[in-house]
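To: structure desk
From: M.T.
Subject: fold request, one chain
Message: Could you run this one when you get a chance? Sequence is below, nothing fancy, just the single chain.
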Amino acid sequence: MSLKKAGVAGSVIGMDRSTAALERSLQLGIIDRIGTSLSDAILEADLVLVAAPVAQTGTILASIEPYLQPGTIVTDAGSTKSDVVASAREALGRKIAQFVPGHPIAGREKNGPDAAIDDLFVGKKAVLTPLPENSQQDVERVAQAWRQCGAIIHHLTPQDHDCVFAAVSHLPHLLAYALVDNIVKKPQADLLFQYAASGFRDFTRIAGSSPEMWRDITIANQAMLLGMLDSYLMQLNRMRDMLAAGDGAALHEVYANAQRARQNWIRTIESAEKQDKEGGD
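Reply: Done. Structure tokens follow.
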């Protein structure tokens, strides 16, 4: 939708495991036609985007490989990269140079074609984790596609990517799911939800995301996520000790430090967005 809005997309062909999703995408104009087969969809494609739960990446790439022609570039939107790269190497073999791993850092907790919006990526980061085999020209082609969607391009190694997003994305999702699941299992769950207000809604918004997608992300980034989770558990235990001891000063220090850090982070984001809108570096 973003590429269409920018006027840079020719014919967009959709392939999906759900016939209903494909038909709805066609009705909404998200795609121009439904691919009748993988060969039909892939043979003349300039760019192929794989957007699926990350555990399916290898299977999808293996199914694409026989029809992948020289000059066609494949990229993905997966939220983990080390596992995706390993799957791609196994599935694509000698065609691995045609795969440029990527991850747009934008999303919504809603799913399906009706949740799609054409400005989702405007001002958001799109992280590419290029492979040694990728040509600079092919990396730039993928980067330019995301720029046409309004995204700001960043580069990381697959390992650095997974470490960063274990901390700032994968752990928060795990925590949000855990909190809602914990409350819904309580005998007084209906009463608790009745009084849950904006703070609870904001904290748990991401628990409305696809369970299948986040199950795969959690397992795919297991090692990095376990490290972040263990660190967080240590922090919770420290705060539990503060609470048990009635140590208001120690709790205040944690809260104040977190408040300052978040305010600084928000100012940095707002400054970057303003600079981007005004054409800064």
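Reply (cont.): The radius of gyration is 21 Å. Let me know if you need anything else for the meeting.
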